[in-house]
Amino acid sequence: MSEKPLFEDIKKELLAQQRSDEEIKEIEKAYLFAKKLHEGQYRISEEPYIIHPVEVAKILVGLKVDSHTLEAAFLHDVLEDTDTKPEEIEELFGKDVLTLVQGVTKLGKLQFKSKEERQAENFRRLFIAMASDVRIIFLKLADRLHNMRTLNFMAANKQQKIARETLDIFAPLANRLGIGRVKAELEDLSLRYLEPDKYFEIAQLVAQTKAEREATVKLLIDKISQDVKKSGINAQITGRAKHYYSIYSKMKRLNIAFHDLYDITAVRVIVDSEKECYEVLGLIHSQFKPIPGRFKDYIAMPKGNMYQSLHTSVIGPRSKPLEVQIRTWQMHEVAEYGVAAHWRYKEKGSEKANNASDVQFSWMRKMAEYNKEMTSAEDYVNSVKLDLFSDQVFAFTPNGDVFDLPVNATPVDFAYRIHSEVGNKTVGALINGRIAQLDTKLHNGDIVEILTSKTPAPRLDWLNFVVTKQAASKIKQWFKKNNREEHIEVGKSNLEHELTKSVFDEYFKSGEFDKIAKQMNYVSAEDLFAALGYGETTLNKVINKLKKPETPAKSPEFHGTSKRKGEKDIIGLEGLMYSIAKCCSPIPGEPIVGVVTRAKGVTVHRIDCQTLDHIEPERLMDIKWSGDNVNKTYNTTIRVETSEKMGLLKDVIAAVSDNNTNINYANVKSKNGKLGIIELGIELDNIDTLKKVILSIQAIPDVYSVKRIQTSYTTQSSPRKNNGKTKSQKTQKKKS
Fold it and tell me: Could you say which architecture CATH assigns to the domain 203-340?
């Protein structure tokens, strides 16, 4: 095989990237040097060894890395596989290239006593290497990607081992750096060797449905193309099937079949400016019905790896749901190349080097600073706490299997991730060989051993600290099926304590609990009590449904918020009877003020409530939410103005439900035959949830406005605030 064409392909690409002649000459010099040193060496595939560094260099040329990284790509194995001395590389190619080569070589020469030690140490070395120079990671990712492409020549056990490490370490690493194209290919190749049956099944299904999908996508693309052309927007519109691993993960996560997935194909629209992204979004939503709860604005709120794009799902042609991604060319480059693109902007002196994206990767600089300060690698790891995956935790089983979990995950989350039976039988845990409490938060690199009993015995209080939905769901499922009588007694006891025994008995005799149970989709009052007992519903949800007794003497008035001594939802009212004002219905997160009344204790109002204008200043109290409002709900009412259109109420209710918010009642009115008015009474936990609900409803086509009734609050105009003034300043203003 002639060696010359191997570099010629790279040279053509370098010329296309407008690299200087001097740059290309130095890169070719590294290629020729490596070719000479690897002469006579062959890979397991029986190809000349030089093909490997050439393919690694090709991957890096595609990422448009700097010339020193490309030189190091050709040389990255010479220290390990030949007799070449570091001094020779430094003399021929400079200290920077030598540092890159040594960084990759150190990673390759690691020796481990056990599988888990190998993985943990690999993490540590990767982070240390990244801290000193992120280009070392580019090299390692490209090296791993080509190894994965040629993994078919390895023995089956090695294929599994390398694929698992790739999926556990290198694919998440590429994702953290935002290098989407490398992450996707690493995940697909890993799936091919870890779950070959699933991989080829998905590949076959994707191929079989290709024609139908492409026909649907073509109709959508044609329509979008016409609209953007009329608007004078220059856009490139393409359709693509999702990567196999992405499809596999979603099927596994949602426990659904391939044919139940509706977003296998995505349409991508690339435009010239950020302003045009939002214009195209409006054009699409005006032509195709958006699916509630499926819009994400990663332009206004970029991901941690700098990814920016608008994502929306719409009901496309032939009533087929499709995902649409809208981004600029620069956003697209960052989505494909991630931090590699960011570094190029810095090299060019672009303003991008000084904007928010520079902040996104400030953790790299911190890691480098820690490395300079620490005398040992162990001290370094303890200091940075594996910041690379700060939004994820990777914990190991004693056998070396890796599980990724959310931040703050506990051994119970870990146990349920292994298997629901393991979770149900958990009685204790060893973290790094030491006994640990089950609510202990796991850290990257922890080795977790779950201690189990012979019979399932989960605890209800686990729901207070587990962070994964999987664990919480499995715990609730178990309690729903077991110990029913115990849960009924617990639910009754909690409700009696909240209402007082006399009030509870009155409701029980009148059959009120049976009515509430049916309203909340339970068969009987006993089912309702059981649900309270194992945590499926909350006391406040039940109390909010109760019919208010006609005589106040028998029972206090319940608004979901009447309180007795000892409750601490609001700071400043400790030990006092208080209630939430119905005129403004304040929600946790909003500024509040207390008003002393003659007969009802203290009423809690929003700081901007109009009724405060008529209250004497001396009756006002400084108060604030305590933050201890977990599992408590508060009522408010919103008014939605819409066009007169069939089925719009269903869309509005769906938008509310997508935000896990209960609806107490809904009322639809007609105004002058053209305008529809929908009033919704809803239960909320805090003001942030209300804002999400309002934004979700406003995203629905044909919705004109959304606001809270009896207040000045809308999303178009900010609520009246105190303008930074204290209560005493406000009091002085009223006195004047």
Answer: 2-Layer Sandwich (3.30)
